[in-house]
Amino acid sequence: MKSLSIILPLWNESQALPRLFSKIQKFKDKTSLKLEIILINDGSTDTTKQLIYKFKDNFNGKCKIISYNSNRGKGYALRKGVLLSSSDWVLTTDADLSVSLTEILKWSKKILKPTEIYFASRLLKTSSTQAKTSRKIIGYIFRVIVKILFFKHGSISRIKDTQCGFKLFNQKYVNFLFSQSVEKGFLQDLEIILLADAYKLRV
Question: Of these four, 38, 56, 135, 186, which has the most CB atoms within 10 Å of its CB?
């Protein structure tokens, strides 16, 4: 891995942005990867838009911004960001950075295959990052529903934390997958898995 695009969908995240920006800067200082930061303002009604433009002006690196007036959903925002990316690898993640950006440095030391998609999980016994108890309960209920609806799909049944936002894709396939996606909301995570299965890409 030589270059990395980090895609961050944002909706009314003004309270979380100072912490997010600090973590992005610390990650940039720590890594030799060529970074591209893509921030998507998904129709925020707070000061998110102003804050991300201010960050771009002060950021010593490549930063792209997408902004539109009405909220379209996380799936829509991710699709817009991914299709604008240009790095060898593309990381999608959430504004709260529940999984630290430094985890990608561990991943980059492994043999990453272009035909594989990598999902982080906070629910494995070996996970160094743990989900909050409330999120674990909601996640458990969601997984039960998903397994009932998609019991014939091995990949969805196998993945314990489909909704963890921390996902890594190779540029060779990510544009193709997301351009095929139509889901605008949080169910896009499941849609991407189904698309990956359809095109023989291992998650």
Answer: 38
- Cβ within 8 Å of residue 147, ≥6 positions away: 156, 157
Cα torsion at 82, 72, 131, 137 (round to 10°)?
-140
Q: How far apart are CA 131 and CA 164, in angstroms?
A: 9
Q: How far is CA 36 from the centre of its chain?
A: 14
Angle (deg, nearest 10), helices 171-180 and 188-198: 110
8-state DSSP, 200: T
Instruction: Give the whole-angstrom CA distance, residue 108 versus residue 118.
Output: 11
Secondary structure of residue 84 in the 3-state scheme: coil
pLDDT value of position 131: 52
Give me the pLDDT at residue 87, please. Answer: 97
